[in-house]
Structures are given as C-alpha cells and as structure tokens.
Amino acid sequence: MSNRVLISKKLFCDVLRLLLHLEHDPDLIDFDEVRSICASIDAGISEKLDKMIRHDAFTAYKTANPGAERELLRKEYIELAQIRGSFTSGYEIPYSELS
Q1: Burial class of residue 20 (count of CB atoms within 10 Å of its CB; 0-12, 13-18, 19+)
Q2: Do the domain assignments include residue 76?
Q3: Contacts of 48 (CB under 8 A, 6+ apart)
C-alpha cells in the first residue's frame, strides 16, 4: 500500500493561499478570507478522508476470503458507499456463476 495521498488541485491551492495569508503582517490579514479558505480546506479534507475510508473498505471486502467475513465486509462497503438497495443483490454472486 502506498503511503502517498493525492489531493485535488483546488485543495492544494487553498492550503497555499492560507499559508500565504498567514505569512503577512497580522494587521494586514483579512480574517474573513482566512475563514473562507479554512472552510474550503475543511470540506476538501473531509471529502478526501471519506473517499479513503470507502477505498479501504472496498479493498478489505475484495481481498477477504469467501464466506461470512467477506459478506459482512461487502455489506459494510455498500453502507459506507451509500449504494442503494436497488443496485445490489442480497448476496455476492461468485464470478464462476456468471457464465
């Protein structure tokens, strides 16, 4: 597993904008702008964290041994990914049964 995390260009630019604002003389800082940038960074980080959690859940489900544990992990992933019931079957269909 890679120890790298990719972030969007917008999130990266927001972090840079925040750092540049904080380097200024405190008397010149526009605190409304800083609050706005912080809110954007918070939203971007929350979105990224949610994606990482869903990815980890999917990987755990797909790499688990067949059986009860895999089914439990599949249901956990479906719940985390907020996949509606109409898009899922009650259980996983093994690849060998698809043909």
Answers
A1: exposed
A2: yes
A3: 5, 7, 8, 11
36: in domain = yes
- DSSP label of 67: T
Nearest to 42 by CA among 15, 22, 60: 15
Arithmetic mean of pLDDT, 24-33 = 82
Residue 10 CA to residue 45 CA, distance in Å, equals 11
How many domains, in total, are found in the chain? 1
Q: pTM higher than 0.85 for the full model?
A: no
Residue 39: pLDDT band with limits 50, 70, 90: very high
DSSP letter at 84? Answer: -
In angstroms, what is the C-alpha Rg of the chain? 21
> Residue 2 domain-assigned?
no
| Structural domain harbouring 83 | 9-97
